[in-house]
Amino acid sequence: PVPNDFLSLLPANPVRKICAKRPRHSDGSSAILTWLNDVANTLLNGTGHLKCHDTGAELLGSAARNSLDMAAWNYQACTELILEPLTSDGYGFYTPGDDQVASVKKACRQRFGVEPRPDWMPISTGRSDYSSSTNIIFSNGEKDPWRVGSPGPEKLSPTVVSIMIKGAAHHEDLRFDPPPSAANPAVADAKAREFQQIGR
85: closest CA among 122, 124, 48, 41? Predict the structure, then answer.
């Protein structure tokens, strides 16, 4: 809801901003292509410094040597969080393919010299069965595409809480509070529930 530079420079409500400028089909293919370039610039080139867009720069198989932050995340994705088969609902920009895990494994071996264990996360967490676990909070933003990987309520014990935050983005409840004019009351409510749960 507010401008940020968490991973890249983004305006407030970037998707809303992008969609507000969407051309009509009758505007012609040139206008549509110009708009698609603006979409890419908004999401990948907020500073305006890039001359081309590497949409795969954050992906493990990318030849790009990205920032230390992304390298650390990529290493964790190789060793602990093989998310591809777990968090896709099949409707994302990069839809899952039959060779997806194999290509991630190959990239992890090439980049870090490690062998991923795609079954490690489900096994280490009881295959997402938290009925015997205690004191865990799962918070998911309604706009977070990774929320599909969260366990369902039927697999939670009474002290494991799942909070769906209406209108919220990925880990928005863990960020600093925005100015009052941009605040989402659902995020404030989720934070209050989380503090209450932690204080038990």
Answer: 122
Whole-structure pTM over 0.70, yes or no? no
Under DSSP, is residue 34 helix (H, G, I), strand (E, B) or coil?
helix
User: 7-66, pLDDT tens digit by residue?
Assistant: 678 888 888 899 999 999 899 999 999 999 898 888 878 888 888 776 666 555 555 555
Alpha-carbon distance 22 to 32, whole Å? 8
Q: Which structure tokens are listed for 152?
A: 């369902």
CA distance to 51, 82, 101, 149, 196, per residue, from 85 (Å): 33, 7, 7, 9, 33
User: How far is residue 35's CA from residue 29's CA, in Å, rounded to a whole number?
Assistant: 10
| CB-neighbour burial class of residue 135 (10 A; exposed 0-12, middle 13-18, buried 19+) | exposed
Given a cut of 50, whether residue 86 has pLDDT beyond it is: no
Rounded-to-integer distance, Cα 60 and Cα 71, Å:
9
Q: How far apart are CA 10 and CA 4, in angstroms?
A: 5
